Amino acid sequence: MMYKVKKIFIVLSLALFPFAAYAQNQISDEVIQNAAYDLKPAFCANDLKQAIQIVERCYAKVDEDPEHKNINQCVTEDIFLMSVFIIKRKQYFDKAQTDPYAGLEFAKMKNYVGRITKYPSFIMDIKRGSGMKQVGETGGGKIAKILKQDNCWNLNKLK
User: Fold this and answer.
1) d(CA 85, CA 158)
2) How many Cβ atoms from other residues are within 10 Å of residue 9's Cβ?
3) Residue 8 CA: distances (Å) to CA of 37, 110, 146
4) In contact, 101 and 85? CB cutoff 8 Å
5) Residue pair 73/31 in contact by the 8 Å Cβ criterion
6) Which residues lie below 8 Å from residue 35, measured CB to CB, with a gap of 6+?
7) CA distances, 21 to each of 17, 18, 133 (Å)
8) 66, 123, 126, 140: which could join 18 in a potential S-S bond, CB 3.0 to 4.6 Å?
9) Tens digits of per-residue pLDDT, 68-116?
């Protein structure tokens, strides 16, 4: 069990690293602001299921749009939400509690990768990019900061 959890954390860390490395250069402030605004109702309600529905609706709208205009927003929301799942899973693991997200299809790595790579987005630029560099504040950090300013960021209450 412990090996499996460590493996999941390693895989997700590797999957999220490019986001941290290029987020500031690849994601506009408008996309970050829109992602935070979109996710705000779920995080104000401390409801991860609602956040999943928001991300799924975002992708559904992109699927309907032949130009896939808002894909960067959906991917940004998705990456942020998956990072929240990592934090929440670690909290449960540290307290030796059962992980309520273990069987969640949305949070499975293969489904996550399929979603974020379905259409061209900033993720594709990261894959082709060279010379990765660390940035001070990632897109996910900016979303969390916006949610915190609006009193909608409390990981301990988030379920």
Assistant:
1) 10
2) 14
3) 29, 12, 28
4) yes
5) yes
6) 73, 76, 77, 80, 139, 143
7) 6, 5, 6
8) 126
9) 999 999 999 998 999 899 888 888 887 787 878 888 899 888 999 899 8
